[in-house]
Amino acid sequence: MIRGLCANPPAKNWYGAIVKFVFYLRPSYPLTDTECCRVGKESVLITLGYSSALLKFESHAGNSFSNTLKSCRNEKKESSVFSQRTEEASAVQYFQFYGCISQQQNMMQDFVRTATYHRAILQNHIDFRDKIVLDVGCGSGILSFFAVQAGARRVYAVEASSVAQYAEMLVKNNHLSDKIIVLPGKIEDISLPEAIDVIVSEPMGYMLFNERMLESYLHSKKWLKANGMMFPTFSDIHLAPFSDEQLYMEHYSRANFWHQQCFYGVNLSSLRGAAVDEYFRQPIVDTFDVRILMARTVKYTVNFMDAEEADLHRVEIPFVFQMTQSGLIHGLAFWFDVAFVGSVVTVWLSTAPTEPLTHWYQVRCLLHTPLFAKEGETLSGKVLFIANRRQSYDIHIVALVNQTGFRSGNILDLKNPFFR
Fold this sequence. Notes:
- By secondary structure, the protein is α/β, with parallel strands linked by helices.
- It has three domains: 34-72, no CATH class; 95-202, Vaccinia Virus protein VP39 (Rossmann fold, 3-Layer(aba) Sandwich), CATH 3.40.50.150; 235-419, Hnrnp arginine n-methyltransferase1 (Distorted Sandwich), CATH 2.70.160.
- The protein has helices spanning 13-24, 61-79, 81-85, 88-98, 101-108, 111-123, 142-149, 164-173, 213-219, 245-255, 272-280, and strands spanning 2-3, 34-39, 43-48, 51-56, 132-136, 154-159, 180-184, 196-201, 224-231, 234-242, 284-286, 298-303, 314-322, 327-341, 346-350, 362-373, 378-388, 392-401, 407-413, 418-419.
- The strands form four sheets. Strands 10, 11, 12, 14, 15, 16 and 20 form a seven-stranded mixed sheet that branches.
- α10 (245-255) packs antiparallel against α11.
């Protein structure tokens, strides 16, 4: 607690100096990750990450201090790449979610995910031995520990959510404070004291792109040496048409609730159309039998070594499928693979329906109207991912059966998936 800093501050810049003094005590905390509130007439409570300070002022100095702090935070927001692309409410929700130990446990207990990262790093230990490593969005810090096990000289573990404090606890308890440096903050806001040899991260979301963390992963390349490496190195997203009458009718059945004309005396039927539209805008997160797929997949590759952040603002995937069976096409199914290209071995992590299940599952997007196609006919069109400020994407699908001219499509909200 700081009391009676100055009853009559000598200059207007005094408040700014105090703001800088407070925050530069903990430079790894971006100003945008701080909170400030008045406590009575004389005090201001400031939270820096998971630490708090109560400043007590005389007279009305606290009010000026609070205003100066807010001004500094706003200036910082304007210059933050992350803030420019993200709504504040979305960011708060996102970091609260990943700040929960239970969510970290959910990811760590995904055996395919964790074991694949462990194998990719340890089998390519030559790429980590005596190297400087950056772990982007480190969470619990598990990938940082893997890097040290592979011989890394030093690891900078960057984490913007409050789980950074738990990562720090694990580092200290495992006696690795000399190897792993936890930096609370966003990769877009922090500064590193040296260039990086290897970047590790787990930035993939549903359908690969959800949550837009891939952009943060690409942003981190500004610290990467010219001959540096990235784990993962590239990703393939796969898509294929599917037939699933039961799934399609389930979605319509969900909307039938709003067809009731006497729900406790209230007619709900005017909302059924809106309900159908909303439910069909939801990508469906689940898994399925590969026998529902009606054609060989189309693949779209994102090479993290070459891609820029702007490349992910609008992703267009054209497709032409030759149907391997006749029937109704109810939508498109999606999954992804990522490759860790090391000097010794390339290791793959797959979320395909033919592989052991992961916490990413697979994702299916329904067409508004099913299309009928015969074996040997072609289905052409495109999938367009358009990034939004809710850390997700709007998905535009158009599809055409070339031989008949029948077409269908849909616009989906990846931020609002349906977990089946």
